[in-house]
Structures
1.
Amino acid sequence: MTKQKIIIDTDPGVDDAIAIMLLAKTESIDIQAITTVAGNSSIQNTTANAEYLKDLLSLNCPIYSGATESLTGPFIEGQVHGVTGLTGITHSFQGNLTNNAAEKIIEIVNTFPNEITVLCLGPQTNLAQAIQKDPTLPSKIKQIVIMGGAIQSPGNKSWVAEFNIFLDPEAAANVFNTPTPKVLVPLEICYKTPLFVTDLKQMTDDSKLKPILTSLVMPYIKLLSQFEGVDGAIIYDALAAYYLVNPASFTTKELEIKIETKGEFTRGMSVADLRTWGEKNPNTTVATALNRDLFIQDLLSSLSK
Ligand code: RIB
Ligand code: CA
């Protein structure tokens, strides 16, 4: 079987962690590298959390740390993943900051031209910096799969903006302006696909990850309810990861998307042309639906391995 070579760009993050677990357990996926970015927590914490996950999942891919702030200034920090970014879990990994994520994305894509999928699970600063440093990169990336944006949904970080894009709108605009095939997994389908603690009963009792998932999900549900008013664990990044595992299970639509970088009230908004008339210049495959029960069953079956 030809494996799908991927780079996971991430700010672990409870849902990032579940995404990485799924990909680690999927035979058809070849993780070339994990690149970290600040967002859900500091770069120190997100990188340390990535090291914890690499050890937990016996991954042999390298971890390269990246952006500590957005293209235009400091990041605001996330709240729903706890202070360390992995609420509910304590570990002793410290985070080795190599600060070379952009350079390594360039190196890996140039080593495997037209073979690499970049999975963006945090602010897209690392990928944007890579593209700024090597403008030929977009023509050599196979596809970019992004968890982010809100097309038919209010934002989760402002009235209209989703967290990953809100943290670095300029980076997202740079990425969306490339000709590289892009897939967007936006807020609306994530909200329709919550994970509940009761779902974890589907996991076999001898599953190594079951107690860890339970420790992660329970406090995450409480924080999401407090800060985002939602019910259940919205495992945003796991849906984006699942697109790499089972793309046929998603309903999608081709849309043209622009990222607002100037609006006083709309900065970070993913603006889509939803008109049913006029000239169309779609630049993104947008996921519009996913069968929740199938996804959760598939996810937990994989994590039970
Ligand atoms: O808006 C949800 C996104 O922001 C997810 O990637 C979550 O991990 C946070 O990074
Ligand atoms: Ca994330």
2.
Amino acid sequence: MSNIKVRFAPSPTGYMHIGNTRTAVFNYLLAKKLGGKFMLRIDDTDTIRSKKEYEDALRDILQWLGISWNEEARQSARMARYDEIVAKLKAQGRVYACYETAEELEIMRKRLMNKGLPPIYDRQALNLSSADIARYEEQGRKPHYRFKLEPGIIEWDDMVRGHCRYDAANLADPVIIREDGSYLYHLPSVIDDADFGITHIIRGEDHVTNTASQVQMFAALGAPQPIFAHLPLLTGREGKLSKRLGSLGVRELRAEGIEAMAICSFLAKLGTSEAIEPFYDMDTLAQTLDLNKLGRSQPKFDEEELKNFNTHYVRSMPYEKTFGRTGVDKEFFDAVKGNLTVLSDIEEWKTICHQKVKPIIEDKALTDLAASLLPQEPWTGETFNEWLSQVKSQSGKKGKELFHPLRKALTAAENGPELKTLLPLIGRTKAYARLLGQEA
Ligand code: GLU
């Protein structure tokens, strides 16, 4: 059995959007492809912004997307473990207390920037005497804590970005615990990844600099360094990722009738060298996953493109993949699917074929004639053509003048599947009455 394990680690501070959905999809597909495990980790160290409502919603969306997890963890339940590790790291001098206020740090940052220098914390806190500390404590200042980076080159082979190399001298010691004692994301994430045996970390490229310092955290814990893959971030049509797009909710897309597997297919291939095409299950999609095919540039995400793709997805959908959601048989589905934009549009065709419709009579002479020529059942594959050629020759009408009035009488709609396919679904009784202008 493979020891591969990935995790999706959302912070429950908002609803699932297209960006974090993409991260979840890639993680899940990698686990599937390599026969590994997928863990759901709730990153709820921010107790003020984390909400149960968001967590429930994200679980619901993951399930809807077809993403299931083998294991789960919650950061807020692991504080004692983080405290234990921090105590060790403090004893080793890898975690140190700092007493600067936010304002002081901001002044230092500006001073460095004005000199054209990178805003790297100068580690003044390491020089504090116990008298300095006592004075700060007396003033009521509370310490925040930083992780001390060791000098040297930090390297990893990224599955998307290739070889990555950072000089620790160019990085600031990350703050890991705030003044109020709460944990920032960096260290708990590494402790979890180490404790749960995470082998691959796939996340957005906005985490690349975090990775550089986290590589040293893994080493400080004596844990193996996982394999990293940083996905280029999505951008909007206009070039920059707009606020709206960044937060484009998957719940909204779902409510608009976008199919879960259409979203997964789309996101898995967006920004790769492969064409975006419909996949109707995660297993098949997972077999095609190849992170090497992901480009380095930021792919454009266009909501309209996704919607158009969804229509293509629905129109190409094999009946078995509807899993009974349509409530129709295969013959019916295949007859109308070419006219669906979203799957639920099938309801309209169910109404037209099985419920009452008020016909629209445009050319009474023609539709009366058509009714009188309508053959008795049973109908064969040839019935429609035979009927139509009789209506045609006896009325002298052809093309649009022939079809349009018949369609409007039979379906009360302007467009739709071919009449030849629809007529048997409507059946003789309804067709006959509708051609005569009766609601049926
Ligand atoms: N909770 C973090 C986030 O949502 C997780 C980042 C990670 O995958 O390490 O950005």
